[in-house]
TrEMBL record:
Transmembrane feature ranges: 7-30, 50-71, 83-102, 114-135, 142-162
Protein's UniProt name: Cytochrome c-type heme lyase subunit nrfE
InterPro entries: CcmF_C (IPR032523)
One Pfam family recorded for the sequence: CcmF_C
Molecular function terms from GO: lyase activity
The Cytochrome c-type biogenesis protein CcmF C-terminal domain, residue ranges: 8-235
KW Cytoplasm (keyword) present: no
Keyword terms: Lyase, Membrane, Transmembrane, Transmembrane helix
Organism domain of life: Bacteria
Length: 237
């Protein structure tokens, strides 16, 4: 149980479980409708709820890879260093999630256990692999190290974007304003102009910090219509 093949076995079973989750979520509504029971939809909440624990366990297993050998005859792994790295990862994850919650509180940020655990295991993979590369612990290949680190970074980005990104939808016109967190957005005016191969509607939007009014930014998003290609595109400057 303290070898890489055992971790590979766990990972393979997790992939099988993930496949079953996808198959069930995809075909269950079809079977439900064919059985004459009505219409039902399976969306993001179902997949998020079931894939969350699978992803966390997978990342935890992935982080242990550098410390184990391929056979029972390999050198017995030390439990001290992995435990220390796990604790360091947990402290860093707690600090990151706490900062994100406090920093984005004006726009409704709340504490997220999903974010804490996912960031924890993502940092665990990242730190354990970097440590093993520097200290030359184990015999994990460079390609595996890079791949695992990439997965950890992707998981970190996914959960932070899911839990700590916010948006509002407002209809604004020249002279109107909207508040978003610590900022006040003012729609100043609309410019109509003709480019070399397009016509454009450009908005002038002023973004001001409520506390420090000297920190003012100007955004000029625009809609461009290319008559030759009959195409409308959005530009942000």
């Amino acid at each position: 149980m303290v070898t890489k093949p055992f971790l590979v076995l766990i990972s393979a079973n997790l992939f099988v479980l993930s496949t079953a989750v996808v198959v069930f979520g995809t075909f269950y509504p079809m079977v439900y409708e064919l059985a004459g029971l009505g219409n039902i939809s399976v969306g993001a909440p179902y997949f998020n709820l079931l894939f969350g624990p699978i992803a966390i366990v997978s990342l935890f297993v992935m982080g242990a890879v550098p410390f184990l050998g391929w056979s029972r005859t390999s050198e017995k792994p030390s439990i001290g260093k992995p435990v220390i790295l796990l604790l360091v990862s947990l402290l860093l994850a707690f600090a990151i999630v706490t900062y994100s919650t406090m920093h984005y509180e004006p726009v409704g940020a709340e504490w997220s256990n999903w974010a804490l655990f996912t960031v924890w295991v993502s940092l665990w993979v990242l730190i354990s692999h970097i440590f093993s590369a520097i200290a030359k612990v184990g015999k994990t290949s460079l390609s595996a190290l890079v791949a695992h680190i990439g997965i950890a970074i992707a998981a970190f980005g996914c959960v932070m974007n899911a839990e700590y990104s916010y948006e509002i939808t407002k209809r604004l016109g020249p002279g109107s304003q909207a508040d978003f967190g610590d900022y006040q957005v003012t729609y100043v005016d609309t410019n109509l102009y003709i480019g070399r191969n397009f016509t454009a509607e450009q908005a002038i939007i002023e973004i001001a910090d409520k506390e420090n009014h000297q920190r003012t930014m100007v955004a000029t998003p625009e809609k461009r219509h290319y008559s030759v290609r009959v195409m409308t595109m959005t530009e942000l400057q």
